[in-house]
Amino acid sequence: MIRMGRKQGMITAFAKHSWQICCARDRNMTLALTVAMMCLGTLLANADEGTQSIRFTKDWRFTKGDPAAAETVDFDDSKWNTVRLPHDWAIAGPFNPDEDGYAGKLPWKGVGWYRKEFTLDWPAGSRIYLDFDGVMAFPQVYINGQLAGKWDYGYTSFRVDATDYVNLSGKNVIAVRADTTNHGTRWYPGAGIYRKVMLEIREPIHIAPWGVCITTPKVTDDSATIDIAVQVENHKPAEVSSKVTFTLIDASGNDVASASMDGTIAPGDSEFKQTLTIADPQRWDVDHPHLYRLTSELIVDGKLADSQATSLGIRTIEFTADDGFHLNGRRVQLQGVNLHHDLGPLGAAFSTRAAERQLQIMKSMGVNALRTSHNPPAPEVLDLCDSMGILVWDECFDKWDRTADRIHGKPSLQEHGERHLRSMVLRDRNHPSIIVWSIGNEIPDNEEGVTPERVKLMAEIVRKYDTSRPTTIGTCFPHQVAQGVYDSLDVVGWNYLRRYANHRKLLTEKPILYSESASTLSSRGFYALPLAYTKTDYNPGLQVSSYDLNAAAWSDIPEVEFDLMKKDPFVAGEFVWTGFDYLGEPTPYSHEAKSSYFGIVDLCGIPKDRYWLYRSYWNPEELTVHITPHWNWPDHVGAKVPVFVYTNGDSAELFLNGQSLGRQEKGVRSDRQANLAVGKQFSASSTRPSFEADLAGDDDMDSKWSAENDSPVQWLQVDLGKSESIKCIVIEFEKEAKWYGYELQVSPDMIHWETVARKPVSDFPQWGGSTASIHKTDIQARYARIEFDSLSDGNHASISEFAVYPDTAQSMYYDSTYDYRLRWNDVTYEPGELKVVAYKDGKQLGTARIKTAGEPAKIRLTPDRTRLDATGDDLCYVLVEALDKDGVLCPLAENQIRFQVEGPADIAAVGNGNPMSQELFQTNSRRLFYGKAMLIVRANEGHPGQITVTADADDLEATSISISSNE
Ligand code: GAL
Question: Where are the transmembrane segments (predicted)?
Fold first, then answer.
């Protein structure tokens, strides 16, 4: 069926000097050719070919600051730096140690200018566009001195129509001003033209930007219906005769369907619609991401005028209220991660290879889903997800205020939402990987925030551009359910602490996702003893222990979330916060550190221990046998060093220097002592209804005793029924123990009381702190009692569990760890070899061993790939480690390593995953952090050849590796 004629309002006409309607790609290999030439003054044209897409990334000039008249043609930029896009001006540093770490302590605030000169030789009537994937922030684009377009959100893509400003036969100057001054952020945003720019040259009649829309409304095992709508722009004053042809090709290159339509195209915008039906469709799925390719060709007056290739996947998706998410008719548990847009040491400057590596590392751990927190990603990320079978939550905003580049409600939510949701949905709608659109994250119901009407408005904007996927929000506000805030959404994503419980009760028909889970914290390679008692019991040394027992106060360790996902199968699955460490938000050392501790892998992509925990559970098909911690504890000879093993097996036996330390089995909680107070008689000075005294002795951390008022003078007491030998009293408070001042007493008879501990209110540690107080005793008593004498502001006496043990004890918070990791809590340390043999169903599965290392003696370099492409974008990640003279990894080494790269490549960045480090990323040396660092090498564009990477250090044997860079 053919339908032609003027189109109804989908693509708005471009307005000069005003907001440019955004658009861009479509993985559009345009008809003629992507061109690879481009340097200052290069002639950009071959006038015989009507259409070109040119990567506009080389030979830009850049300066920080805001020089007057920088937009003018004759401005002298010869003293500016030459840069290649994508470019992030802030990642070079330096760090500002005095600044809070929320945005990485990097100099991202301010104004920067980019300029580029180019020459065109193109016939009159040609259309010239500049497509920007992302500029941070508030870009103004000048062409030949005139403002040609501007944009007001750093994370969405936009097009500038340059046609009326360019000189089609001669020299042109483009100047872009980026200004981050008014950008608000909670993480490192980057600065400048941090994603690619394309120069798009088109004939006067061409396919509109993001103008191909493909949906698959009917899919069965036998056939699939493919609906295609193509928007065409006719910039000529007259009607033309045309033909549009569609060819669908499968992954093996076979034509599987085609159609063509003849007609006329009137001046302005037109739409063509076509339906193709194919037999035996191959599904796009997580394990089998089959992609078809649709070529749309526009023929005008008998000549090919434009062509676009769009990849597509045939799949069905459904979110259900009671049975999670269904892909192609079967339930798929979402095993997802949140990823911010920065690429660690490379900053926000986008690199396809760096993103591909991120996704490969995540996938190897069992990830099948990605939440692009909290903004649309570079479009290449979605291409990667399409081809790797990763399901995507595509998110437009964090809040709707300054992090969305909206300042005090200006522009209106309607205008701003329309502009940017449209950009996200039109750009991304053909990606089969995307399963849900998100309108924002954790938006409060304040002045700039959510109301039922505003959420409806935003959801309707999304649906205007795509009805084939559901719309969602990420939230942490259970009270908003009853306010009706989520009524107009299809799915609701919840962040942390099983906050979806209220939704489950009230909105029974609406599907639920766990959009943020875990927020567990750790520094790769660092272990603190003794083990954390509760999740907020952080090490005061500004690193977080990799025993994986710490989480942010508002979140949990991985196993708590694994249990929830088992218990609540109506939830579609979880997105862990976060897959990779990112720049900024360094909870709990928010002031001191510069990058996060949340990642399952560190800032350089080196796995932390947690990677192996997730992999053992999420990817059980792969062999995982991993020992935590390292075995270099010179100060602990003869002392206890706990050993955890992460494995996809169900049990394992541990050996130290050949001696068996016994076998542990998943699900067996060997260590926790019986709590003598469970079920015994409790009394208290006062209680609130439903928070009675005996709830402090029910062995359940979710229930608690709470005093009825704020008076600090309160008490709680237990009668054990008979005299007992007491070795340990553990009080689990509702909040951090530091907020409570009290005296702990015991008595044989309720007449003679002995004080066993006194504790004042304190404000240490600044962040977090344990919710439990542990008091070691060695007494005989029948009664135990806590008497509060002071409470910090806003708190009242409240205890989740008052536990009395006949021996030393562990927090019951960690009980679930025994179901997922194997724990030997009392290994007496001696240097040597620790070996584990893992079993599954009684059969040996695999082994792992670690050894005590001697002094660092040499360097090991391990490249992730040894063949690169000389495209200017390709990277090699070289893992740098210190070994002792026998080749044993030195887990504590911190040598400063120097690098040299010879051949057609440069050092793109160095890093070591240390959240506290303020060493530069763009330099040629790096200190090892717990034995490891990362060197990132970039192959030069257009210069294939051999690359030699050499690493040396004082006192270490140097080493070299070879990499080749190919055409
Ligand atoms: C969430 C928030 C995220 C991040 C995270 C850290 O509440 O949505 O952006 O801040 O906390 O745990």
Answer: none
Residue-wise pLDDT tens digits, 532-577: 888 988 988 999 999 999 999 899 999 999 999 999 999 999 999 9
* Ligand 1 near 395 CB (within 6 A): no
β-pairing verdict for 471-475 and 492-495: parallel
Looking at residues 435-452, what average pLDDT do you find? 97
Angle at 338 between CA 334 and CA 341, to 5 degrees: 140
CA nearest to 428, candidates 457, 466, 458, 400: 466
Residues of the chain with CATH 2.60.120.260: 50-202, 681-809
pLDDT tens-digit map of 502-539: 999 999 999 999 999 999 999 999 999 989 888 988 98
Q: Is 648 in the pocket of ligand 1 (CB under 6 A)?
A: no
Q: CA-to-CA distance for 514 and 334, rounded, in angstroms? A: 9
Determine contact, residues 628/952, Cβ cutoff 8 Å: no
Ligand 1 mean position, distance from CA 943 (Å): 43
Nearest CA to ligand 1 atom 6: 519
Distance (angstroms) between ligand 1 centre and the Cα of 255 equals 47
pLDDT at residue 15 tops 90: no
Distance CA 678, CA 699 (A): 6
Q: Residues spanned by CATH 3.20.20.80 within the chain?
A: 349-520+555-580
Q: Residues with Cβ < 8 Å from 678, sequence gap 6 or more?
A: 697, 698, 699, 803
* Structural fold of domain 681-809: Jelly Rolls (2.60.120)
Measured between alpha carbons, how far apart are the two ends of the chain, in Å?
45
Alpha-carbon distance of 226 to 592, in angstroms, equals: 54
Fold exhibited by the domain 206-312 = Immunoglobulin-like (2.60.40)
**pLDDT at position 765 over 80:** no
Per the structure block, which two tokens stand in for 958? 């140097």
In 3D space, the residue among 797, 684, 694, 683 whose CA is nearest the CA of residue 742 turns out to be: 797
Q: CB within 8 A of 67, min separation 6: which ones?
A: 75, 113
**CA atoms of 402 and 379, how far apart (whole Å):** 23
Whether 131 lines ligand 1, by a CB cut-off of 6 Å, is no
CB distance 901 to 949 below 8 Å: yes
Instruction: Check pocket membership of 187 for ligand 1, CB cut-off 6 A.
Output: no
State the pLDDT at residue 44.
Answer: 46
Span(s) in the chain for CATH 2.60.40.10: 206-312, 858-966
How does residue 769 score in pLDDT terms, banded at 50, 70 and 90?
A: confident
Determine if ligand 1 sits within 6 Å of the CB of residue 233. Answer: no
Atom of ligand 1 nearest to the CA of 441: 8
Domain over 50-202 is classified CATH 3.20.20.80: no
Phi and psi for 634 in degrees, rounded to 5? -55, -30
Which class for 519: exposed (0-12), middle (13-18), buried (19 or more C-beta within 10 A)?
Answer: buried
Domain 349-520+555-580 falls in which CATH fold? TIM Barrel (3.20.20)
Whether 31 shows a pLDDT value over 80: the answer reads no
Q: Which CATH superfamily is domain 858-966 in?
A: Immunoglobulins (2.60.40.10)
Ligand 1 pocket, mutate which of 521, 536, 585 (most atoms under 8 A from CB): 585
Q: Looking at residues 139-149, what average pLDDT do you find?
A: 98
Determine which helix (DSSP H) or strand (DSSP E) holds 700, and give its type and residue range.
none
Alpha-carbon distance 425 to 192, whole Å?
Answer: 24
Backbone angles phi, psi at 424, to 5 degrees: -65, -50
516 lines ligand 1 (CB under 6 A): yes
Q: Which range is most confident: 10-14, 377-381, 808-812? A: 377-381
- Ligand 1 contact via 442 beta carbon (within 6 Å): yes
pLDDT for the residue 621: 97
What does the pLDDT look like over 771-782, one tens digit per residue? 888 888 899 999
